[in-house]
Amino acid sequence: MTYALICLPFLAATAAVTALSARRPHFGPRMAASAAAAVLLLALTAVFDNAMIAAGLFTYPETHLLGLKIGRAPIEDFAYPLCAAFAVPAVFVLLPERRRA
């Protein structure tokens, strides 16, 4: 199995949860904030993944990669921060509101 296939369920779940949250208040501003967070997380991923790969902390078998890279980091590494930036806020707004005691 390739890393891209492993990422697909996470990307699909993120798209589904984000779409479900579209009817909640402040969807537009939340998407803008998620996009800003995604840019930051993707930049941090690029810097730190490249540093860790260059330091030899881990490697990826080339047979399981798409071949696209940002520096030394495979493009598949960037799916998870992208999912986090959009899925976490979407799940948060979909959770039932907790009552204060």
Automatic annotation (TrEMBL):
**Domain Lycopene cyclase stretches:** 11-94
The answer to whether UniProt assigns keyword Transmembrane to this entry is: yes
Q: Which InterPro entries match?
A: Lycopene_cyclase_dom
| Domain of life of the source | Bacteria
Indicate how the chain sits in the lipid bilayer: Multi-pass membrane protein
| Pathway(s) per entry | Carotenoid biosynthesis
Entry annotated with the keyword Transmembrane = yes
Keywords from the UniProt entry: Carotenoid biosynthesis, Isomerase, Membrane, Transmembrane, Transmembrane helix
Query: Where can this protein be found?
Result: Membrane
TM spans, by residue? 31-58, 78-95
Q: Show the NCBIfam families listed in the entry.
A: CarR_dom_SF
Q: What is this protein called?
A: Lycopene cyclase domain-containing protein
The organism is Glycomyces endophyticus
